[in-house]
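Researcher: Sequence recovery benchmark, item below. Answer with residues only.
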């Protein structure tokens, strides 16, 4: 669809209140899934992040990389095993997780942001003891539970105009490396930073009353409503940990959290800078149209 100059001007005018609202505020974006695998979508997402940064929004990008970890494990002849949605991680797998997340994926995202005109620096949870962790469960091996988040390195980068790109590996005081769920890391970082919002990019439209019908999207959920939605079976399966992370972030002081469909081009911009919005927003209480 071709957009004329008048339409472009109207779009920019409508975005102005949102640009003013978010200027100098922090947005934490959790990135993964198909939006990371598809190269065209990846380019679009990185372009959107650079745009947000250039208009004065402080963006922190937290990324996972499950499919690429699985692929690398296959290459070295290791089978991936999961317990309750978490990857069982022995010492060798932990090394591979660190190599893939903190190395290959992290640096490729940094380079892509730089190629789109942004300024980015890659971090892992081991840098500056950003994520101090311990074993979540002996059965899971080196799967980490967050003990402490030190956001000083992130703040230094944000205050100097950089986009921090954070890979979700943690460490302990004995230099053990832990694989940590990316949604959990994003929620904890957003809370510690006092972020304006947390945006979780997923492979679904948001929270649906009927998981097979995208038209049943629930646009706004208050934190107090989530237990009932779990009891009603509307929140179930793999959505439970994602929504728990969104609600935990809001409980810890993040103004609002979103689950959006990362497969939709420019979904971050639609959610952040338009009246329309996209996905499901989690809030502590009542909301207004401007916050949708």
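Model:
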């Amino acid at each position: 669809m071709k957009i004329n100059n008048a339409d472009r001007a109207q779009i920019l005018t409508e975005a102005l209140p949102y640009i003013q609202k978010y200027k100098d505020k922090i947005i934490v974006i959790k990135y993964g899934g198909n939006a990371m695998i598809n190269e065209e979508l990846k380019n679009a997402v990185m372009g959107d992040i650079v745009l947000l940064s250039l208009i004065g929004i402080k963006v922190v990008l937290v990324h996972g990389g499950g499919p690429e970890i699985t692929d690398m494990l296959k290459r070295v002849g290791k089978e991936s095993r999961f317990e309750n949605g978490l990857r069982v991680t022995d010492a060798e797998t932990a090394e591979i997780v660190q190599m893939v997340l903190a190395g290959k994926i992290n640096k490729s995202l940094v380079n892509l942001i730089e190629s789109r005109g942004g300024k980015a620096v890659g971090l892992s949870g081991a840098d500056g003891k950003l994520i101090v962790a311990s074993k979540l469960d002996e059965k899971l091996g080196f799967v980490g539970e967050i003990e402490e988040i030190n956001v000083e390195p992130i703040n230094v980068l944000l205050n100097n105009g950089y986009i921090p790109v954070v890979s979700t590996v943690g460490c302990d005081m004995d230099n053990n490396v832990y694989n940590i769920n990316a949604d959990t890391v994003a929620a904890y970082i957003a809370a510690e930073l006092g972020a304006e919002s947390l945006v979780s990019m997923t492979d679904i439209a948001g929270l649906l009353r009927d998981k097979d019908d995208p038209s049943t999207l629930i646009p706004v959920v208050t934190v107090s409503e989530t237990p009932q939605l779990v009891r009603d079976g509307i929140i179930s399966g793999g959505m439970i940990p994602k929504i728990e992370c969104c609600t935990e972030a809001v409980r810890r002081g993040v103004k609002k959290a979103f689950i959006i469909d990362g497969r939709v081009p420019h979904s971050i911009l639609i959610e952040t800078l338009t009246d329309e919005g996209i996905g499901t927003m989690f809030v502590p209480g009542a909301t207004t149209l401007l916050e949708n």
